[in-house]
Amino acid sequence: MVAVARKHGRTPAQVVLHWHLDLGHVVIPKSADPQRIRENLAVFDSALDGEDLAAFAALDRPDGRIGPDPETFG
After folding, report:
1. Is-above-0.85 flag for pTM?
2. Which domain holds residue 29?
């Protein structure tokens, strides 16, 4: 995440937000810090490429989860 953020001149939080938006997820970032709120809104003027998305997808390792699998949690 950090490498992708550096590549795009963004914060890790911004690329994570952008990633979730690219996946079609509804994201509701929360912050009381005005600077962080501005950062959260500044995700719409950049784009993640296929290499970025592949790097994020490679992070999904079921053996490394610290919580339940969202595909089977019920």
Report:
1. no
2. 1-56
